[in-house]
Specification:
Oligomer: single chain
Number of strands: 0
Shape: globular
Radius of gyration: 19 Å
Helix content: 55-70%
Strand content: under 5%
Number of helices: 8
Distance between the termini: 66 Å
Length: 217
């Protein structure tokens, strides 16, 4: 009974991932309609429509359905972010966006890039959150977190440690700012490919901000 209670205490809270998706919907709602694939409410509506059955599948512990819906949800957002960034960059030579709107849109897309790739890493690493919860501890996956490297006799060791959404958010933030992982080595090829895509999106967004700054100077 005590062991079960311990495992239950270590179960990852669900609200950080849901808050991230809600933030993504709000960020996309704030973009000018020219930068969205249709009305600016279309992506938030798609997030809401897919999020409801995704949450239901998690509640029912339907691993395969939950995983498939989560991947579809992330894919929709990722395609939308890349599409919006492409339209924003294409409009730079013609100065289609007002300076304030350009900067605001670039910042919104940069934040969206961090959130959506944090969701990718969280959703795919070691089979996803439901699979990770079934294990006693996180001993292997696509990323080598520092907590996984401590020897058992170390005072910093935590035998039941598992990464949560904030750990993947920190990883995604570092990838978007440093264009590389910092304290978390990448072990799998799919994770390396995703981080390359995230870095390219971040670099494109920062190039917009730099171009605008040079234009001001």
């Amino acid at each position: 009974m005590e062991k079960g209670a311990s495992i239950q205490r270590r179960t990852e809270p669900r609200w950080p991932a849901i808050v991230a998706l809600a933030a993504l919907a709000g960020l996309y709602e704030s973009l000018p309609e020219r930068l969205t694939p249709g009305p600016n409410w279309i992506v938030p509506a798609a997030i809401a429509i897919l999020l409801i059955p995704t949450i239901a599948a998690r509640q029912l512990r339907k691993h395969s359905i939950y995983f498939a819906l989560g991947v579809l949800l992330n894919l929709v957002i990722t395609v939308a972010v890349i599409w919006s960034l492409g339209i924003l960059i294409a409009g730079l030579p013609g100065k289609r966006e007002a300076p304030t709107e350009l900067l605001r849109s670039a910042v919104a897309l940069w934040i969206s890039n961090v959130l959506v790739f944090a969701s990718w890493y969280w959703r795919l690493d070691a089979g996803g959150p439901l699979r990770r919860e079934l294990r006693h501890a996180h001993t292997k996956g696509a990323f080598l977190f520092p907590q996984m490297t401590f020897p058992p006799e170390s005072p910093l060791a935590d035998a039941g440690w598992k990464p949560g959404f904030v750990d993947y958010l920190f990883l995604a933030f570092n990838t978007s700012t440093a264009f590389s992982p910092t304290d978390v080595p990448v072990l799998s090829r799919w994770a390396k490919l995703l981080m390359m895509i995230q870095s390219c999106v971040s670099l494109g967004t920062l190039a917009i901000l730099a171009a605008r700054a040079i234009n001001i100077l």
